Amino acid sequence: MKRLISVLVVLSAIIFGSLTSVAQTGDPGLMDIKDFVRQVFIHGVPYEEANKYDTSVVPTLLKMLEDPTEEAHWANIAVVLEIIGDERAVDPLIAFIEKGVEGEMSRFRYVAKTSALMGLGYLINKTGNEKALNYLKQSLAPETWEARRIAGISPFQASMDERNRDLSKYAILGLALSGHPSAAEAIRSLQKPADTEAKRAFQAQVSDVVSEALKTNEEIAREGLATYYRKSMP
Q: How many CB atoms lie within 10 A of CB 197?
């Protein structure tokens, strides 16, 4: 069985990549950062390649994340920012995740938001940033998304409630990617008896995700993200 995180990365790449061209295979080297993030990676952004870039490219990436003409590349931009791990990106990334739209958002925007949410785990893994870590912990509860009053629903959901549950699932995955011990504790809290019917229903929906996320968190904590991805990717 494919690992939880790599499966989700592939699924996101399929959704994202169906509307644009496919990147060439092989080692792209340190190409211009704009060219790098404008590729489509069939198996998701390659961790080791993205990790070669340093913080000097962060201002460029942050500008691209605000540029509507780069919408098709926002998912890659967010993930590369998070792999680089510059803490200057935390507030802009959270603002990006929470930026609402009227009506139905494009699938590019939705994939970018969920990629950015999950990808906060990369940044936490590298920096231990408390704000990003606490944001993901709070995001585990679907009602938190309701309280944030974020407008817009994706083409993949029938209701705001479904959207909120899906966003919380990506928060679980972000905590898994972090490899952080307190992230594991937060994920484990979803296995404790719930006090409302809504919480019990959500726990039932994510029970398999929670179990795999705990395994992933433990493996990343033990071996590191680079080793995890070398073992996970085809």
A: 8
